[in-house]
Amino acid sequence: MKNPFEFTKELLRYTRGELSKEEEKGIEQVLSEVEGMNTLVGELKDKNRIEHEMHVIARFDTERALGKVKNRKQVKRRGILPWIAAASVVVIAGVSAWILLSQEPDVHNLPVAEKFEPGKAVVTLEMASGLKYRLDTLSSVVRNNRVNVAFDNNDRVLKIKEQDSLADGATKEIGYNTINVPYGGTYTVELCDGTKVYLNSGTTLEFPSRFDGKVRSVILKGEAYFDVARNVSKPFVVEVDEMKVKVLGTSFNVKSYVDEPGVYTTLVEGSVAILRDGQPEKKIKPGEQAYYNKGVGTLSIAEVDVNEFTSWKDGLFYFKDIALEEILRIVSRWYDLEVFYMNQGAKSVIYSGKLPMYSSVEDVLRKFEISGDVRFELKGRTLTVFDK
């Protein structure tokens, strides 16, 4: 069976005349064989409809809506919420394609997926010089004599150690080193100042070999827990999306994935300040979380259970009154899955609990199926969710 979402992308290109003659023939063969496909193509050609849907999506504040759900005294576990109706045109078309292409009605049992070991993804390091290393096979110490530091990789921890002071006349290194942690992995970096950075699945961290300027600056994409070495004279700055997080010495978590609506900065201890261009500095206290909405550009601060946002560092999924859609967004990054919903109501089912991250994906999914509110079909890397 064709992957419905990949097929939908081809359909979109077909409606825009972007396919080769051979590709067009393949699409037209499916259109002629599968009843209802021509109707779907007609919907994809409706530019006004697509523009309207995308406009709704762009303005929608998912996190705010989810907060309203969680604050209700009684949540209907299986109700279809109005805000869930705002779905991507590609997602709608993909689900339609799934229905039209599917020829396998028996979806009651959860099949075993191909073997995938969480936490074993290949992490890579690209030096500022352009040299690249696989950290799962790098066992030797790599020296950067230009700035007198050594990269020591051992037991899934990369330590950058300062060898001695810069020699007179030495040239300052230009560019950052980059460590990339793909889906299904974690890694720890100990920077040259002693700061420890725990990197979650699907994360990229850019950092200098040593901090020679007035600030210690790194660039983050994804999620990381920072345990910053205190240095009053040289603040530590995390650049993430359209903002910066500045600290002197503290422990905090920052999450900003491409598929997340905002940037979450959760403070465990110490003090951090949120910096944005043209906006006053905002400070948060331990036990608080700053949430920056990337679509709207607003910043809000609220008290949270910090364990919910930092337990991943200790190998645990911690969900506290969280909608299944948000839970599976987290789980899919860890197990490298594509998630499709056959029923919109499944997205709003609320769960709480703790699960070990290093369990098999089948074990994790069965925990949710026990509730009786949802069921899953897992084929390879594709997870389909059904509302019971």
Automatic annotation (TrEMBL):
Q: Which residues form the Protein FecR C-terminal domain?
A: 317-385
**What start-end ranges are recorded for coiled-coil regions in this protein?**
none
Transmembrane stretches, by residue range? 80-101
- Does this entry carry the keyword Transmembrane helix? yes
Which keywords belong to this entry?
Answer: Membrane, Transmembrane, Transmembrane helix
Q: Which Pfam families does the UniProt record give?
A: FecR, FecR_C
A single Gene Ontology MF term assigned here is: sigma factor antagonist activity
Q: Where would I find the FecR protein domain in this sequence?
A: 178-272
Q: What is this protein called?
A: FecR family protein
